[in-house]
User: What shape does this take?
Amino acid sequence: MAGLSLDLIALQLFAGLALGAIYVLFAIGLSLIFGMLTVVNFAHGAFYMVGAYAGLYILMLGGNFWICLLAVPLAVGLFGMLVERFLIRRLYGRGIDYPLLLTFGLSYVMVELVRLAFGKTGYPFDTPDLLQGAVNIGVGYFPLYRLFVIGATAAVLLGLWLFLEKTSFGLIIRAGARDPQIVRVLGVDISNVWLIVFGIGTAIAGFAGLLAAPLQGVIPEMGSTILAEAFVVTVVGGMGSIGGAVLAGLLVGIVVSMSSLFAPEMAKVSIFALMAIVLIVRPQGFFGRAGLMS
Amino acid sequence: MLQVANLNAWYGASHVLQDVSIEVAKGEIVCLIGRNGAGKTTTLKSIMGLMDRTRGSVIFKGKELLNLPAHLRFALGLAYVPEERRIVQGLSVRENLRLGLVASPEKRHELQLIEDTAKIFPRLAERLDQEAVTMSGGEQQMLAIARAVIAKPDLIMLDEPSEGIMPVLVDEMFELFLAMKAQGTTVLLVEQNVELALEIADRAYVMDQGAVVHQSSARELLADDEVKERYCSV
Assistant: This one.
């Protein structure tokens, strides 16, 4: 352990936050969709991957990263809405396993289509010029792009919070997640709400994939790794809870980051150990409602 | 205002409503009584569009509703307060009231309407920013009614509003129904508290085993101990 200064630990903590930020974005979409539609979206990782490839495609066409930041979530969200409207919608009222199987299968189709279009090997994804380099954050030099990821995540969270808490549509979403029938008898076409929520959730997943691309490059399988990790985040945070997804996402990011500093060989296992501990101590997760799946 | 004719409804394979016919004229309070399981709740749910399978006819303000989804029935001026109030957890009293307006053209007068509603429901006025589910059962029922009437429906259907509520609040609530009637709102009421319901109602239908078995003016039924004994005693 010699040579591990406090500064290094602090830097590693920041790296954990940046990693956690991606988990947070991924998991809030998953949570939003589950909380509202009771659909466990197994294609969420595939939407994330499509976000990264959509960004890559825009760069290939000569666009820049800043265009991607806007265009990618829009495109992935629209694609998500098509999936909800024409595939998932047919399965409502048939139990939780039908949409689960559908999205599971869909994720394979999406990955295979991307392999056909872009090839099986991955691509590097350049960090945008403006965000290259590192800045001194007091405890040492930290990559500027990772700071940007943390900031962009905070901005998305703030926007989502304002949308849910301050707008009428947000009120409908919060109420509809608890009691869809009462929202219907108060005049709301709940199927439109589900469509839009699925669109928002997948748009955020696409955005997360884009943000992750410069950190790790893009490959067709990038979604399945994060899906497994996000599953941990959702279990730790509580299924369907957005606050839980945020807290647990950051925590998982920090646990991965810290364990790769102190015990690199344990890094992959550490989050599953965390999940096991949470499941023993608090089976419904930090903010979950007990018995939600029953 | 509302003409229900030969309405049938099913839960899965079981045929729970058989040829129910009910009429409610504008400005009336009509009450639907009968034992538990007689089909009263199912009748209201079918009128609101919450049953999967229905047949027959439900005409509201001259328009056939049977194939319309629930949210479009609301848009035509039909309101429904389900059993057990269904106050949304995690929302304040004010947010629950706003929820009553989200889909209504009256939404642009939201602040005014919440203020007006607070005057009619003084118990809610003091608690606008409290989390709604922390209120007493009676107050939650008041909120459920307020949420349903804030968008000014033409007809409001209430399912067992007095259930599990302190008598003093029940009286207050029934006064409110009379006030709503005086304002021109039509009321279709399902109630276990038969005597009280018949005192404020104009007409009544008695249901048993999924069918209407008796209908008369409320006053006649109030005096008819035999019918009440036969279909309403527990």
